[in-house]
Amino acid sequence: MTQELHIIGGGMAGSEAAWQAANAGISVVVHEMRPAVGTFAHQTGLLGEMVCSNSFRSDDHEQNAVGLLHWEMREAGGLIMRTADKHRLPAGGALAVDREPFAQSVTDALMAHPNVRVEYGEIRALPRDGHWIIATGPLTSSALGEAIAAETGAEALAFFDAIAPIVYHDSIDMSKAWMQSRYDKGETEEERTAYLNCPMDKVQYEAFIDALIAADKTEFHEGETAGYFDGCLPIEVMAERGRETLRFGPMKPVGLTNPHQPDVKPYAVVQLRRDNKLGTLYNIVGFQTKMKYGAQADVFKCIPGLEEARFARLGGIHRNTFLNAPTLLDGQMRLRSQPNIRFAGQITGVEGYVESAAMGMLAGQLAAAEIRGERLETPPDTTATGALITHISGGAEAKTFQPMNVNFGLFPPVEGLKGGRRGRKDRYKAYTDRGKGDWKAWLSGAMAPA
After folding, report:
1. Residues 158-197: pLDDT tens digits?
2. Could you list the residue range(s) of the whole structural domain that residue 192 is in?
3. Neighbouring-strand partners of residue 199
4. 3-class secondary structure, 186
5. Which parts are annotated binding residues for FAD?
6. C-alpha 138 chain-centroid distance
7. Based on the number of CB atoms within 10 Å of its own CB, is 194 exposed (0-12), middle (13-18) or buried (19 or more)?
8. First and final C-alpha spacing in the chain
9. What residue numbers does the annotated binding site cover?
10. Which of 173, 339, 360, 370 is deepest in the core (most CB within 10 A)?
11. Domain boundary among 319, 338, 372
């Protein structure tokens, strides 16, 4: 059997897995089907391409589980976080990146690594020997998806994920909109003004909700079900769940003051976030949608400030697939029925760029250790990475398994701290302090010379 590590898929998980294994001295082959075989969501053949939001979400490593995951990946020398920091855009307390330079830098770094080579072409069947990581993400090709289903004896679960639209900045009416991060969050003026805000009064909000509900939507194919992941619900689905749902979600008006009308509190606010370094493109935050293209343009132009908006990309919807990981994968991320294959990233049932990259990071480290004839234990569930792998490898209930973002609900409680909202700040700090200490201890062993 070859001692090379083969990785199918060059997205967040596959790229990070390759980087970690290559830095451990392992020869890595990345198999990427793009651009020869495309997907509806990808625009390029670059590795690490971002197809939905350009945000890695909160970078607060003291009060947020996602921020702690960022911290852990930086400590592990992760390629994805290093590249994200290099191409960072102002986004308040979040980590957003200039997506095209980000993907180009990921590609360049892997292409330049002496232990990595990239082969382009589709892998259509499960390999029977060698060391493999499948990190094909939610847009796994039909052929490979069918091969996985045939091997596991069960259909891959599915949910629908939606893409938010992107607007040209110069088409936004800034006499109605303004720049401000919620609660003026951020250490610099640029961070404190990272979001573009479009206010609505009650009449405008009610008309917007009516338009959303009445708009033409993309229909599902026969046999498909609308099993959305709650963290990525289309806005029209949220509107159908209750007329106030959006006002307590992505359109919440709190922490913002309209400088055009400082004495008038908006009833609702639509936020846009910079999507590229030039500031020419802005994506509408939380506005994933399955409306048809013509309907999208009509509905979004009801938003004050976007009446003359021009769209660089309209929203879309696609079917995402993932494994019932607690049933199919062991604690080393290997397929129980064929342990020469590991899975990593979103196909394992984690949700989000950061979570996908973290599972790639871990899969690359585990595979590298195995190739060297060693066994690397997974990190403890007191860490963000450990909490995720524990969840997907058995911590979750298999019968109701759904994609999951990292969150403190996956962490074991800290003894002596009470629950509830009042003690939340101290509790979250205790989680991150404990997690950092445990991650450093685990990492010192994982990164120790062979």
Report:
1. 667 677 899 999 999 999 999 999 999 988 999 999 999 9
2. 162-319
3. 269
4. coil
5. 9-14
6. 11
7. buried
8. 21
9. 9-14
10. 360
11. 319
